[in-house]
């Protein structure tokens, strides 16, 4: 049963309820793609000239690729500004969990006209899988100075606020009560808090991070200028803290943070209440 106002149970063309990504993926290609294209924010479609029904521009270029294999509980949506581009403008990966929840695995939204920073590759040009296989320090420094967060290759389009309600409504329409995710960085976790997420695991860590970046804390003491990512004062902003954490300022690597959002409920969590706002 749908919980959000004005929302209804998702049905296939024959009127049968669709309660999982697996069920959607069993549909004919045109029918399931029509559902998944509905996750693209209107402003993104207008920016790229994408027709909702066909995922194509008026000239016929297909900019949206949807991977939704029959028999698997997942979907990947990739949107490019031009068909031959290497980078995506919008990338989304979702999956079902065994507990009938929606898992938001990845969501990346980039401005295709913005300058690119090769932080996704090491200094030898090899893909580094979110810096887990080597960092590109020169590119990270350029990225940070340009106002980006860790792992951002380009400035974003600020479309998550338009995308997330679409995801929440689709999740609700399948009768699911919860969206779960694993934020890859500190700033991702803080951003998800804004959209009403709470913590399945990691809330104690988030509160500890805030405490140790306070005067007298062990993390703020390590903001000693020893690297570009550990400058004094970085404790005051989400971006500054996130870069310092990315640089290894904590006693252990950032991981094992899991979050959840109940459909229609804002948890009201704020683990960094005294943050300074940044101009970007």
Describe the structure.
The protein has a domain at 21-201 and 256-262: 3-Layer(aba) Sandwich (Aminopeptidase), CATH 3.40.630.30. Helices cover 27% and strands 14% of the residues. The protein contains 9 helices and 7 strands. A 7-stranded mixed β-sheet has the order 1-2-3-4-5-7-6.
Summed up, what is this model?
By secondary structure, the protein is α+β, with helices and mostly antiparallel strands.
Q: Can you list the strand order of the major beta sheet?
A: 1-2-3-4-5-7-6
**Helix amount, in percent?**
25-40%
The dominant shape is globular
Strand residues, percent: 5-15%
Task: Please state the CA-atom Rg, rounded to the nearest Å.
Answer: 20 Å
Q: Mean pLDDT score, rounded?
A: 93
For the secondary structure, the number of strands is 7
Q: Note the gap between the termini.
A: 41 Å
What is the helix/strand order? HHHEEEEHHEHEHHHE
CATH homologous superfamily name of the domain at 21-201 and 256-262?
Gcn5-related N-acetyltransferase (GNAT)
Category from helices, strands and their pairing: alpha+beta
Shape-level CATH architecture of the domain at 21-201 and 256-262: 3-Layer(aba) Sandwich
**Highest CATH level, the class of the domain at 21-201 and 256-262:** Alpha Beta
Number of helices: 9
